[in-house]
Amino acid sequence: DLEAMTIAPDEPRLHVQRGIALRQMREYEAALESFEKALALDADYVRAHEQMALARHQLGHGEEAIAQLEVVVERMPDELELVMALGELHASNGRLEAAGEQFLRATELSPDDSLAHARLGGNCVRRDLIDEGMESLRRSLEIEPKMPLALFELARALQQENEWSESLAMYQKFLELKP
Q: Scanning 4, 32, 112, 154, which has its CA 20 to 30 A from the CA of 119?
């Protein structure tokens, strides 16, 4: 592969890819080292920050991961990946309101991002903001009619509202996506 031959050891993305592989193998400490090397080469490398925070989270350092991403998002407020990752970390740490703020921000940064609308919608439903949640989930499905997360979350929201037929239809669409 020609691209692989042109990647130098001082290439930040090489260290990020290595770190991602290590994360997949549950070698979180070694993954952190790879992400640190990438950031030493390029302090603004968005993917390295995101992946480092995820590795910290997987090590059980959720607060540290959130703090890191908050600083980076403050420096790079228009980076959709970072805003979404911060929202997901907040959500996984039970901070639903803070997560919702990030997902809303993501939809503002990228109004046609189906995943951002799906995350916002699911978050709203969890906070009992059912109407807002369903609106965002329906927007996600307008953008990408087969968005699994939006179908599943909308089915749950409709179920909460006792809209059984429509809920079942959404669950069926979701199940048809899964072989």
A: 32
